[in-house]
Amino acid sequence: MIQKGIRGAISVEENTEESIIENTKILLEKILEKNVLDMEHVVSVVFSSTKDLTKVYPAKVAREVGFSSVPLMCLQEMYVEYSLEKCIRVLITINCDKKHKIKHVYLKKAAKLRPDIAD
Fold it and tell me: Is 57 among the catalytic positions?
């Protein structure tokens, strides 16, 4: 087995607990679906969010979606002028075999962060 990382991001419409929870759930469920992940293979999850999202930690949602026994961390994304606002990013590290194809997920306005892999 080797370790690989799955990246993802989603924009959030407003800085409310409801909006952050709803969008984090959408992002995580899409990553799980596209990568056919077994929770036993997840090593850790690191979230970052822009400084304008302050109402709830994305890790709260991760626990509710099934990442209950996985180490979770939330950080503030480095501020860069003119960068995408109200954005949650995630890095999920997994144990897998070499052949496992990783599918990164970028949704809503965050799709412009990686137009080369957007759906």
Answer: no
From CA 70, how far away is CA 119, in angstroms rounded?
Answer: 28
Say whether 106 is catalytic.
yes
- Catalytic, out of 29, 57, 96, 114: 114
Domain boundaries, given as residue ranges, for the chain: 2-113
Q: Does the active-site annotation cover 7?
A: yes
Q: Report DSSP state, residue 18.
A: H
Which of 22, 74, 82, 87 is labelled catalytic? 74
What pLDDT is attached to residue 50?
97
Q: Whole-structure pTM over 0.85, yes or no?
A: yes
Q: For domain 2-113, say whether CATH 3.40.50.720 is its number.
A: no
Size of the chain, expressed as the number of residues it contains? 119
